[in-house]
Amino acid sequence: MAGLRRKLLLEAAADLFARQGFHAVGIDDIGAAAGVSGPAVYRHFQNKDAIL
């Protein structure tokens, strides 16, 4: 399950970064797009830069 969640977060982040730009997207945005809370993103990535 953790691997699937990580994959969903990466896909959501890639889509948001492509549409809005890296600096315009927040951790909460990525979490919401993947169906989790913003703080839950930190279970998989140390920070937004780590998603790259």
UniProtKB/TrEMBL annotation:
One of its GO terms (biological process) is negative regulation of DNA-templated transcription. The keyword Zinc-finger does not apply. The keyword DNA repair does not apply. Residues 26-45 bind DNA. GO terms for molecular function: DNA-binding transcription factor activity; transcription cis-regulatory region binding. PANTHER family: HTH-TYPE TRANSCRIPTIONAL REGULATOR RUTR (PTHR30055), TRANSCRIPTIONAL REPRESSOR MCE3R (PTHR30055:SF237). Homodimer. This is TetR family transcriptional regulator. It comes from Mycolicibacter kumamotonensis.
